Amino acid sequence: MSVLEVRALRKSFGALEVVRGVDLGVAPGECFGLLGPNGAGKTTTLRLCLGLIAPDAGDIELLGEPVPRKAREARARVGVVPQSDNLDPDFTVAENLLVYGRYFGLSPREVRARTGPLLEFAGLTGRAGAKINTLSGGMKRRLTLARALVNDPQVLFLDEPTTGLDPQARHLIWERMRRLTVQGKTLILTTHHMEEAERLCQRLAIMDHGRIIASGSPRELIAQHIEPQVVEVHGPGPAVEAWIALARAGAARVERVGDTVFCYADKVDGLLRTLAGHSELVYLHRPASLEDVFLKLTGRDLRD
Amino acid sequence: MRWIAVWRRNFLVWRKLFAAAVLTNLADPLIMLFGLGYGLGALMPAVEGMSYISFFAAGQLCTATMYTASFESMFSGFSRMHGQKTWDAILYAPLVIDDIVAGEIVWAASKAWLTGSTILGIVLVFGLAHSPLVLLAVPTAFLVGLAFSAVGLIMTVLARNWDFFSFYMTLVMTPMMMISGVFFPAEQLPEPLVSVAKALPLYHGVALVRPFMAGEIPQQALAHVAVLLGYAAVGYVLAIRFARKRFSE
How many angstroms separate the first and last alpha carbons of chain B? Predict the structure, then answer.
C-alpha cells in the first residue's frame, strides 16, 4: 500500500491553472522529492495533498484516507515543515512543542516526555527555555522539524526544508532527514536544490508548469535524459568563438550561455584535447548531475 | 472540541504577559469611568433615578467589554493570522478553519468577559451597585464579548492590511458608542437613531446591564439576549465562510 496516491490532480487559482493533471505515488519508507523551478506548482501540490485546499479534479489518498474529505484524520499522522518558519514567537522552545502537541490532542505530560528526545534530535538540548527570537535561522528550522515530529508522524512533508540555510545548518538537516528514513518514516519534500534531491531522495519527480515532466531515481533520470560527461568551458568571447566549432564537432550536445559553453557527451577525451591549444579558456570536466537534467528539462530561463 | 487547543494557546500567551495585558485593558475604561462619572457627574442631576456615575458605569462596562473583544479579535487576531502565520501552523495539525474561528471568538470573548467582570468588581467596591441581581452582569459581559468578537473576527478575516480596522472602529464602533445609551439615555435621541441603536449589539448589552446594576429585571430581557446571541451566531458563521475563502487562495 502506498503512503500517498495522487491521480489526475488539477487546481486553478482564478484563470491560472497551477496544477494540470498530476499523478504521484509514494511508497512507505521512501524519501520522495518533488523538484521544480519557482512557480512550478510544487507547494500547491503539497497543500492539496494535505487537504489545506480543495482540488478542482482528481483523487488524493494520504495514509489510506481520502483527502480532502478525511484530511483531518490523515493529518493526525502527518508532520509538516513549511517553507517559512511559523514558530510561535510568544513562546519558548519547549512551549512551542507543548502548544503544538495540544493541537494533536497530546497532553502536556506526553509532550514533556517527548520534548527531551526531540530537542536532542534537533540539536537544541539546553535551549528548552530559549525565546524564539534568540534562535539562529538554522536553529529555528531544526525546531520547526522537531515540532513537525511532536505527534510521531508516519509521513513528513517538507517544503524546501533547507532554503536560506548555511552549509553547516543544511548538512545537519540532511543528516537528520536521513535518520528519519532509517527510522522508517516516509519523507516527501519539495526543493529546487538539486544536490539536496540527489543526496536524499530515492525517487524524484520533476515538475514544471503544473505537470510532472519526468520521474525516477536520481541515477535513472541522469541516465535517461542526459549524456554522462560534462565539460564546462568559460573564457573571453573571441576565444570561445574560435573554439566552439570544435566543441560542436566533439560533443553530442552543446549549450552556450553567454561566454560559458556546456558540452554533453558520452566520451570527452577528444574534446579535452582540443582545449589544450586554447590556454585562455578555463574548463571543468565533471560527471553529469541532476542539475543538468533539471536545466535540460525545464530550460535555463529565469522564473521570477 | 479541538478549538479548545486554540483558546489555550492564546490563554498561555496572555498568562505570560498577564500584568501588562490587564493594566492596558483596564486603565483606559477606569480613567473614563471615574473621570467622567465623578467629574462630569458632579454637575449632573440624577439620570433615570440614579447618580450619573452609576448610570454611566453600566454603559462603560459594556463599552470596555466591546473594546477588549474587538481589539483582541481584530488586532491580535490579525497578527496571529497574517503576521505570525500562527493559523497556518495550526492548520497542519488535525484542525480546520472552523476550530480556529471558534477558538479565537471564544478567546476574545473570555478576555472581554474578564474586563467587564473586573469593572463590575470595581463598581461593587465603590458601592455603585448593591443588588445581588448585579451578578447577572457577569454572564451578560460574556455575551457582549461573544457578539463583538464574532463581528471583529469577520473584519479580521476580510482585512488585507491594518488600516482596514480603522474604518470599522471610526465608522462603526465610535458612533455606536454614542447612540447606544452609554453616556445618556438612547431614547432621548431622534427616532431614526434609536432604531439604528436597537439594531446594533451594544445597545442591548447596556439595556441588560443597567437594570441589573439598579437591582431590576430588564424589560424584554430575552429579546436583548437574543440579539446578542444572534450577532455571535451570525458572526461565527460568516467569519468561518470568509476565513475558508481566504485560506483557500
Answer: 26
Q: If you classify domain A227-287 with CATH, what class do you get?
A: alpha beta
Local confidence band at A101 (pLDDT 50, 70, 90 cut-offs): very high
Are B86 and A88 inside 8 Å of each other by CB?
yes
Judging contacts by C-beta atoms under 8 Å, the chain B residues touching residue A151 are 93
**Beta-strand relationship, A57-62 and A65-67:** antiparallel
ipTM, 2 dp: 0.91
- Those of residues 135-154 in A touching chain B at CB distance below 8 A are 147-148, 151
**Distance in angstroms (rounded) separating the CA atoms of residues A47 and A94:** 27
Query: Among partner residues A75, A84, A87, which is closest to B93 by beta-carbon distance?
Result: A75
Interchain proximity A75–B92, CB inside 8 Å: yes
Q: What are the structural domain ranges in chain A?
A: 4-219, 227-287
- The residue in chain B having the minimum alpha-carbon distance to the alpha carbon of residue A44 is B249
DSSP A132: G
- Condensed to tens digits (0 to 9), the pLDDT of residues A114-164 reads 999 999 999 999 999 999 999 999 999 999 999 999 999 999 999 999 988
Which grid cell sits at B242?
470568509
Burial of B174 by CB count in 10 Å (0-12 exposed, 13-18 middle, 19+ buried)?
Answer: exposed
Residue ranges of E strands in A47-148: 57-62, 65-67, 78-81
Question: Which one of 3.40.50.300, 3.30.390.10, 3.40.50.10320, 3.40.50.720 gives the CATH number of domain A4-219?
Answer: 3.40.50.300
CA B238 vs. chain centroid, Å, equals: 18
